[in-house]
Amino acid sequence: MSRIAITGSTGLIGEALVASLRADGHQVQRVVRRQADAGDDDVVWDLDRGTIDAAKLEGVDAVVHMAAEPIRTGRLTADYRRRLHDSRRIGTTLLAETLAGLADPPEVLLTGSAVGYYGDRGDEVLTETSAPGDDFLAEVCSVWESSADPARAAGIRVAHARTGVVIADGGPLIDKVKIPFKLGVGGKVGDGSQYVPWIALEDEVRALRFVLDAPQVEGAVNLTAPEPVTNQELTKALGEVLRRPTFVPVPAFAMRLVYGEIGETLATVSTRAVPRKLLDAGFEFVHTDIRTALRIAFDKPAAA
Question: How would you classify the pairing of strands 3-7 and 27-32?
Fold first, then answer.
């Protein structure tokens, strides 16, 4: 049995990861912001004050850092930009410096990141060695990852989970398309040629656990299914799973009107990321077909 500390344990991915680890008998210590939310073994931190209960992290085997300001649709205001940036930089730096100073530090720190690191790259195949993009979200991801450097410098194995679009009930994609597609007004965005790097929630959790247990895996790791799909292919799959028409294209500017600047960006950028490092390390995906993943997310059986 391992002892694993996790930030962001109430998010979509964090909650699923905690449940998976505990089901296999591992001891999970949640890192929480309020003492009232903490159990006996949980760790309390305060990002505003820059404090964390370091003593409770002594001897922990691994730390998974998923906490960050969520990327929501809407206007990309100066305040929202600051919160997206600072929540990743401040939280990761505090955690990394704390772990580096422990007498008995963990073997591995696994931090969250995103395929947004690569920016809008057309049909270029993107692996973990590809250069970063040049937009705001790419810069945020770069800062997120580099903020873990103090732990790396202390000899802790550090990995960054560059996660794609998570296909799951309650995930951002499903929440956004559920109503329009069920109403029969879903369609491809723009010309539909932009690539969508996706991953089923089950494989996301399995991949995170694989990285924790694989000492040879460090640095950036793309957590995406082996075959990214285009927006047009995703739209067709959604139509088949929900048994709804998908012939009404959605202009890119309409995404900005409905979901704001971030919504338009997320819907129109093309990121053809592939999980080269996971595959080379021997990880096997359970869900490699987008239709199967969507059926599970929508709880829809395959057509007879």
Answer: parallel
Tokens 């391992």: give the residue.
2
Query: Hey, which bits of the chain come out as E strands?
Result: 3-7, 27-32, 43-46, 51-52, 62-65, 108-114, 125-126, 157-163, 165-167, 195-196, 198-200, 219-223, 229-230, 272-273
| Domains parsed from the chain with CATH numbers | 3-169+198-226+272-287 (3.40.50.720)
156 within 8 A of 105, measured Cβ to Cβ: yes
And the tokens for 144? 């997120």
CA 287/CA 204 separation, integer angstroms: 10
What phi and psi, each to the nearest 5 degrees, are found at residue 218?
-150, 170
Q: Give the pLDDT confidence score for residue 261 in this predicted structure.
A: 67
Distance CA 168, CA 155 (A): 35
CA-based radius of gyration for the chain:
19
Rounded to an integer, what distance in angstroms lies between the CA atom of residue 137 and that of residue 156?
A: 27
Tokens describing residue 74: 């809407």
Total Cβ atoms within 10 A of residue 19: 12
pLDDT at res. 180 = 77
pLDDT along the chain (304 residues), means of 10: 93 96 97 81 92 96 94 80 92 98 98 96 97 94 97 98 94 77 77 94 98 98 97 92 80 58 75 98 97 91 62
> For residue 126, what pLDDT is reported?
98
Angle between helices 231-242 and 290-298 (to 10 degrees): 50
- pTM of the predicted structure, to 2 decimals: 0.93
Answer yes or no: are the C-beta atoms of 251 and 301 closer than 8 Å. Answer: no
